[in-house]
UniProtKB/TrEMBL annotation:
Gene Ontology terms, MF aspect: methyltransferase activity
One Pfam family it belongs to: Methyltransf_31
Methyltransferase is among the record's keywords: yes
Keywords: Methyltransferase, Transferase
Protein name according to UniProt: Methyltransferase
Organism encoding this protein: Chloropicon roscoffensis
Transferase found in the keyword field: yes
Length: 228
């Protein structure tokens, strides 16, 4: 079986080819999955949110419908999907903004003020890890995220990667950088294949990660609070 080239931009351009703003896909769950973690960090509804690697996720729309209407800014490096999401937003939720931007571009932070209280990443870091120059790109990505966050802001990373593969990247150990975030790790159960493909609610079993314990059929959430 050929493993998809998740780290390549060409893969995502092909994946979104033909997308016309209707069929969408949620990596690691949608609003009902994200909501408990917003509650955990006591996220207020007037929060400014940056969604990185947004793809055609409807998370920003669902958050908007649930009262998060202050400022939602969604970015992705695939121009075609961004254009379609811009059209979709303009028709029903013009407050949600979409732009073609790459979080691993060193110039990213020069275009955005440090005004966001929350950054949501559902699979973007995982994509970067699947590519080339991993340490350099992760370092740039996290530096950009840190710069875009207001004091005491949070970066929420939803990932399939376990802590032994992600924490060293997130806390700077693997990239020889100063720590940018205080990282806490949570675990939740994967949905059934039917729910993953068709959507719908399922019973989340959220737990605090325990080192040395084996977690099967689980996703991980890295709650990263800005330092400094």
């Amino acid at each position: 079986m050929t493993i998809p080239s998740y780290g390549e931009k060409t893969y995502w351009e092909q994946r979104y080819k033909g997308f016309k703003g209707k069929e969408t896909f949620e990596w690691y769950g949608g609003w009902n999955t994200v909501k408990p973690f917003l509650q955990r960090i006591q996220c207020k509804k007037d929060v400014s949110v940056l969604h990185v690697g947004c793809g055609n996720s409807t998370l920003a729309e669902d958050m908007h419908e649930n009262g998060y209407r202050n400022n939602q800014f969604c970015v992705d490096f695939v121009e075609s999907v961004v254009k379609e999401m811009q059209k979709r937003s303009a028709e029903g939720r013009p407050e949600i903004k979409y732009e073609t931007m790459d979080i691993t571009d060193s110039a990213f932070k020069s275009h955005i003020d440090a005004s966001f209280q929350l950054i949501v990443d559902k699979g973007c870091l995982d994509t970067v890890v699947c590519g080339t120059d991993v340490n350099e790109n992760v370092s740039t990505m996290l530096s950009n995220a840190w710069s875009c966050l207001a004091t005491n802001g949070y970066l929420l990373v939803f990932s399939y990667g376990p802590p032994e593969e992600r924490v060293a990247l997130l806390d700077g150990q693997a990239t020889s950088k100063e720590p940018l975030f205080d990282v806490q790790v949570m675990v939740f159960n994967k949905p059934s294949l039917k729910v993953a493909l068709e959507g719908g609610e399922y019973a989340l079993d959220i737990k605090k990660y325990e080192e040395g314990k084996h977690y099967e059929n689980s996703y991980f959430v890295y709650i990263c609070k800005k330092l400094g």
